[in-house]
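Hi, can you check this record?
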Amino acid sequence: MAHTIVDDWKVIPRLMMLAVTVLTYQAVHWYMALPDPTIQQSGLVSVCMGALTGCFGIWMGKESRTTVTPTRVIHEESYSKSSDK
């Protein structure tokens, strides 16, 4: 029963998105508090924001291919016909 709760409610991906969001917020907050930021510090915050954007895009792409019904969750998988041979 516990595995269906984790799978159907997508607990792990949501926890991961929460962690990435909090860590990015903390990095941006730290950066804004710096009196004279360097290029390296700007690069770090830029990479953090890019990672958050990428994670969010992948997560939303997966959510759009998932159908939730009252009795089950259907994940649509895309594959080519040549892999069936």
In short: The mean pLDDT is 81. The first strand starts at residue 66 and ends at 68.
